[in-house]
Amino acid sequence: MNKEFDLQVYYFSDASVKGNVDVGFGRNVQWDTPLLEGYYYTFLKNLSKRKSLSNRMWDVVNPSVIKTLFQSNSSIVIVNGWSYFSNLLVIITAKLSGKKVWLRAENPLNQELLKNRKLRTVKKLILKFFLFPFVSKFLYIGKQSRLFFEYYGVKPSRLIYTPYAVDNDWFQKEAAVLKDKYAIKQELGLPVNKKVILFTGKYIEKKKPLDLLKAFNLMEPGDTTLVMVGEGMLREEMETYIDEHALKNVVLTGFINQSAITKYYAAADVFVMCSGPGETWGLSVNEAMNFGLPVVVSKTCGCADDLVHEDENGFLFEEGDIGALSDAVKRLLDNEHLREAYGAASLQIIKDFSVKHIVQNMKEAIG
Fold first, then answer.
1. Is the residue at 1 inside a domain?
2. Engineered SS bond to 293: which of 45, 97, 149, 288, CB 3.0-4.6 Å?
3. Do 247 and 216 meet the contact criterion of CB atoms below 8 Å apart?
4. Are strands 27-28 and 21-22 parallel, antiparallel or unpaired?
5. Angle 357-358-362 from CA coordinates, rounded to 5°
6. What is this structure's pTM?
7. Is there a single domain that holds both residue 264 and residue 337?
């Protein structure tokens, strides 16, 4: 149980726990690692009849949160985003009940600036004058997240740095156990004598899986396997591309659950995330770095400015630039010493993106 804070978590939906349809994967998904251990939690009744959550306002409607907040003795209410009706309900109710509202969001400014200027002007007015006045502190997850808040008028004194993190300790313990790359490749049915480029994520437009296939096609790598861990609506298009270009050594794994995905990180030599707009961070990069992997990441990804140190632990490229993506991956594949050095740097960099740092920064903000 968490000893740092008297923490109570309220969920608007139990979709992830029950294993309802995940729209991106195109199938029922029930995670096989513990989601509800180590803290107090309550599921609030959701009056919406929707079975899956897709950031649509009416996916969750939880009027019981009003009574819950007024009865709670908590002094601070942390809200994750404002996409859902219930998020807005919490922000307003918490303020009216005399509590401090801390708002966390993932929005990167570089992607926000791609939106229509007039819409951004309207949004700035709404956030500045109607939503943000209800908020005491803003939790930003990285450099682009901070720039987003500042762009919409939030003063530095109201910002708290809460770096986006995975459970580094758990992933690094897994990495320590999964040291025998040869045996792991055998277990996964991968060629033991080939280097592995790894992609993990849904086969959907924002993840740009076809870009990686096109980049792989440019490499003509006889000693490399491209492993694409995931599932989604673009599978058929990806399979067509693979067939039409007679691509060898490409593995589309299908959905892999959390308890098994660490083996793929352990088998990999290079990790790639080539996502476009909508990739507000990219936690798979955190996971890969915990396995000491060099990374190649598009500049559009929310994590790019924070996790990828150019020519230190990997490379950045302009989203959609297939040639640059191919060259970056090939440069790592062709140089074992570079891969090892960049992988070691990844392990050092990821130390600063931990739950411990989040807790410490929040404690300091509370005073």
1. no
2. 288
3. yes
4. antiparallel
5. 115
6. 0.93
7. yes
